[in-house]
Design brief:
By secondary structure, the protein is of the alpha/beta class. It folds into three domains: 118 residues, no CATH class; 77 residues; 220 residues, Rossmann fold. It is built from 14 helices and eight strands. The strands form two sheets. It has a four-stranded parallel β-sheet, with helices on both faces.
Length: 443
C-alpha cells in the first residue's frame, strides 16, 4: 500500500540498531513516506562518528551520526530532502542532548539542510506518513514479529542438523515480514510470521544434548549487531551454549510504564489513559503473534511480563525513578527466573547506565544463587581475550545448569510441566534456586 503524502520529508533515514529498524522503514513506506535504514554500525561508520564527537558522547550518539554521515557520502543523497529519524528521549539520560550534537556535526559537514525529526503528537507525527496511528501499530507488529523470528533462530540454530539452514529460514522470514509490513495491513504480518514458522519447523534439529542458555543484556542498541557485541552470539554457540537476547518488547513496555507514571504525576489523566490503552493494545498484538509460533518456542513464558513485574525486580537494587542502570537489573532477574544459566552483559564504553548495571551485578548474583555473570566492554578498539573469558564463562554456566538440574531431580515435577521435550519440561523451572517472589502491583 502506498498513499502519497504532502509536506513531508523527501526520505527519512532510520538509525541502524538492528533488523527491527527495517520494520520502521517498511511501515513508513507503506503509508507514503520514503524511508530507508542507515548503514549498519561498523568500524568505518563508528570512526566517522568519533571524528565529529568531543570524546564525551555515549556510543549511541556516535553510531547514529556516523551512519548518517557515511550515507551522505553515497551517490544520490539529497540533503535538502533528507531527514534523520530520532525519537525524542526523556528522563535522566545524556540522550536528551543528542539532537544538538547531530545538528553541529551535520552543519560542519555541509549538511545543515538535513532535518532532524522526532515524531510526536505536538508536530503531528511529522515524517510518519499519511496515517501515523496506523503506522505506529504496524511498526509494533513488525517489532514483535522480528523479535520472534530472532528468538526462534537462536533457540534452534545450535541444534540444527543442516548448518546454515536456520539462518536461511530467518533471512527468508525477515524478508517475508518486511514485505507484509509494506502492504500496510497488520493481518498480513501475522500471516507472514505463520508462514515463516512453517519454514523453521521444516529445519531438522537434534536437542538430545542440552546446552546452557546464556542471556545477553545491555543497552538495546548494542545487542543486534555482531560488531558491537563482539560476535559473542556465535562464540557462545561454538562453545556449546544457547543464547537469549534481551527483547525489544520488554524495553518498550517499561517505557510505557514510565510515560504513564509521568502523566499521573502531572495529573494529566487523559495522557495516562492514552498510554494505558496503547500498552494494552501492544500486549494484545504480542499475544496474537506469539500464538502463531508458540509451538516452536522453548520458553516457559513466551509472553513478556507486565512492566510492573520488571519494576518490582528493579526496585530490589535501584531507585526506579533514576532509570539509568536499573532496567538491566530487572531484565537480568527475569532472564534468570526463566531459566538462563549465565548472564552476559555488553557494556558500551562511557555509558553511565551500563556502568551502574555492572556495579549492581554482584548484588544481583547474590539473589540468583551466584549465577555466572560476565561483563564485556566494547570500546571500538577490538576485544581483548574475549574468547578466553567466554570459555571460562561457558564452563561456569554449564556447571551452574547441571547443579540446577541435579537439585531439581529431588523435586517431583507437576503434571502440567511434563510436556514432551520442550524446554518447559526441564526441572530447572521448579527447582527453588532463585528465591525471588514477584509481587505484581497495579502500577
Amino acid at each position: 500500500m502506498t498513499i502519497q503524502t504532502q509536506n513531508q520529508p523527501g526520505t527519512v533515514f532510520i538509525p541502524a540498531i538492528g533488523d527491527h529498524c527495517e520494520a520502521i522503514a517498511a511501515a513508513l513506506r507503506a503509508y507514503g513516506q520514503p524511508s530507508e535504514v542507515l548503514p549498519a554500525t561498523s568500524p568505518t561508520t563508528l570512526a566517522t562518528g568519533m571524528e565529529v564527537g568531543k570524546g564525551r558522547e555515549c556510543m549511541f550518539s556516535l553510531m547514529i551520526i556516523g551512519g548518517m554521515l557515511e550515507r551522505a557520502k553515497q551517490p544520490g543523497f539529497d540533503p535538502q530532502r533528507a531527514a534523520l529519524f530520532f525519537p525524542a528521549l526523556s528522563r535522566k539520560c545524556v540522550g536528551v542532548n543528542y539532537t544538538s550534537l547531530f545538528r553541529d556535526a551535520l552543519q560542519s559537514n555541509g549538511l545543515e539542510q538535513v532535518e532532524i525529526i522526532s515524531p510526536d503528537k505536538a508536530n503531528g507525527f511529522r515524517g510518519m506518513g499519511s496515517h501515523p496511528d496506523v503506522v505506529r501499530g504496524l511498526i509494533w507488529h513488525g517489532f514483535i514479529a522480528i523479535d520472534l523470528l530472532l528468538r526462534i533462530q537462536l533457540q534452534r540454530r545450535p541444534y540444527e542438523l543442516q548448518p546454515g539452514a536456520t539462518d536461511l529460514a530467518y533471512q527468508r522470514g525477515l524478508a517475508r515480514v518486511i514485505a507484509a509490513i509494506e502492504t500496510g495491513e497488520n493481518c498480513n504480518v501475522v500471516a507472514a510470521l505463520a508462514a515463516s514458522a512453517s519454514e523453521f519447523a521444516a529445519v531438522p534439529i537434534d536437542r538430545s544434548v542440552p546446552r546452557p542458555r546464556i542471556g545477553i543484556l545491555g543497552d538495546f542498541y548494542m545487542l543486534y549487531n555482531p560488531y558491537l557485541y563482539l560476535d559473542a552470539v556465535n562464540q557462545i554457540e561454538s562453545l556449546g551454549g544457547e543464547v537469549e537476547i534481551l527483547r525489544f518488547a520488554k524495553f518498550f513496555y517499561f517505557i510505557n510504564w514510565m510515560r504513564e507514571q509521568d502523566a499521573q504525576a502531572l495529573k494529566n489523566h487523559q495522557v495516562a489513559i492514552e498510554v494505558a490503552l496503547e500498552n494494552a493494545y501492544q500486549h494484545q498484538a504480542e499475544a496474537e503473534l506469539v500464538a502463531t509460533v508458540r509451538h516452536l518456542l522453548t520458553d516457559l513464558n513466551p509472553l513478556e511480563p507486565r512492566a510492573s513485574v520488571t519494576v518490582n525486580d528493579i526496585k530490589r537494587y535501584y531507585h526506579v525513578g533514576i532509570v539509568n542502570g536499573g532496567f538491566t537489573a530487572g531484565a537480568a532477574v527475569d532472564m534468570a527466573r526463566e531459566g538462563c544459566a549465565g548472564l552476559l552483559h555488553v557494556v558500551p564504553f562511557l555509558c553511565i547506565g551500563s556502568i551502574i548495571a555492572s556495579a549492581l551485578g554482584n548484588r544481583i548474583r547474590a539473589d540468583l544463587n551466584q549465577i555466572p555473570w560476565l561483563d564485556i566492554i566494547f570500546d571500538a578498539q577490538g576485544g581483548t581475550n574475549v574468547r578466553t573469558r567466554l570459555e571460562a564463562f561457558l564452563f561456569q554456566a554449564t556447571q551452574f545448569e547441571r547443579a540446577k538440574i541435579s537439585a531439581a531431580r529431588e523435586v517431583a515435577l507437576p503434571a502440567e510441566r511434563t510436556v514432551g521435550a520442550k524446554r518447559a519440561a526441564l526441572p530447572r523451572a521448579v527447582a527453588p534456586l532463585i528465591p525471588l517472589a514477584v509481587h505484581v502491583s497495579n502500577a
